[in-house]
Write a structure and sequence with these properties.
This protein is an alpha/beta fold. It contains twelve helices and 20 strands. The strands form five sheets. It has a ten-stranded mixed β-sheet with strand order 9-7-5-2-10-1-11-15-19-20, sandwiched between helices. Strands 14, 16, 17 and 18 form a four-stranded mixed β-sheet that branches. The longest helix has 22 residues. It starts with a strand and ends with a strand. It binds guanosine-5'-diphosphate. Guanosine-5'-diphosphate (GDP) binds next to helix 1 and strand 3.
Length: 424
Amino acid sequence: MPASIVLGTQWGDEGKGKAVDYLADRMDFVVRYQGGNNAGHTVIAEGRLLKLQLIPSGILYDHITSVIAGGVVVDPRHLIKEMNELRALGVDVSRLVVSGNAHLIMPYHLELEKVTERFLGKNALGTTKRGIGPAYGDKAARIGLRVQDLFDAKIFREKLDVVLREKNLILTKIYNRLPLDADRIVEEYVDLASQLEPHVADTGALLYRGLQDGKHVMLEGAQGTLLDLDHGTYPFVTSSTPVAGYALASAGIGPREVDRVIGIVKAYVTRVGAGPFPTEDVDETGERLGVRGNEFGTVTGRKRRCGWFDAVLGRYAARLNGLTELFVTKLDVLSGFERVRICTGYRADGALYDDFPPHQSLFHKAEPVYEELDGWMEEIDEATSFEDLPKEARTYVHRLEELVGVPVSVVSIGPARQQSLPVG
Ligand code: GDP
């Protein structure tokens, strides 16, 4: 059976948790492929509100094996805490499997991120300070510790001593902080390792066998396409690679296994923190989208910037990820606007762009070119089929698919599982 990739097409917070939860029903494996415990999916299932940060939302289904793939960075303290929280809510976490290749977030990553963000002052990236960027940095520098190192005490200690020597110099000599103690880290991580051990496996081999046996695999991205380290608005990006290509590299499966790439598209656009955002509306519309859409970060509580749907970004995401379908979320938030707008292109330095501009400075200056459609005044969150929606809402959805060039398969009209309407 082929695999599917599900990912965010904007700056994250598209409602991926809800979409993955809806799509997961027919899956056997749900795999998280990048990022760390900075993602923060919110899922409402069977009346329970769950905030998942690292564990794939497939965990809510008894028939699904949830996998944390090798391209994720894992803070073992956080992972154990999240597993315990789920257990306390009655969720069975025994089918969670973690790749031994995943890199560990270590206590010095958290310390260093705190002090370097402070040091950057007004240029701070506004990260979630979970140590994720520093852990990916060490991975690239080949001084990272991996989940599998937890199970070889000698290797773990050796690697830790080497890396801690340098980290402690940086902490004490540059940032005037106290050094970290290797013995204490070992003691804590040995205990965490014993709790994690039953969950650690070669996830690449596990997924390969699953695909050979005709199982359904869904690869779930965190953050969004415009936050991609290579293809996003660098440096206002995340430290990993949300685009579809990385799903395969991380999970360790080949491109021929994939037949669906589902792009999660919010019916408008939001962005957290700094960085360019052409359709941002700092007036009444933005305020209203934020309030109606409850646009506050799951992890940080930060208020998100809001604006109209941007089809240029939609086309960019379609191209980069090879999207085969769109899952539109939060259409209900647009109820009550007499007119709704869609950005179809940008104007920058006197030229018109209908594709993502070739230089980022142009993107920073981009003025949106809008087309206007009739809005709909009624609430739509109780609709039970796509055909039930007001004509204007359906026209809006069809216009999105036309402008992005990818068919819409599902429209979401509320946070609950049943508020997802198949299209066509
Ligand atoms: P994610 O990280 O992409 O999963 O996004 P978030 O969890 O930050 O945002 C999704 C939020 O919107 C959650 O609170 C969801 O319950 C909620 N949500 C998801 N889909 C819809 C929808 O169609 N309508 C409304 N009103 N809320 C939704």
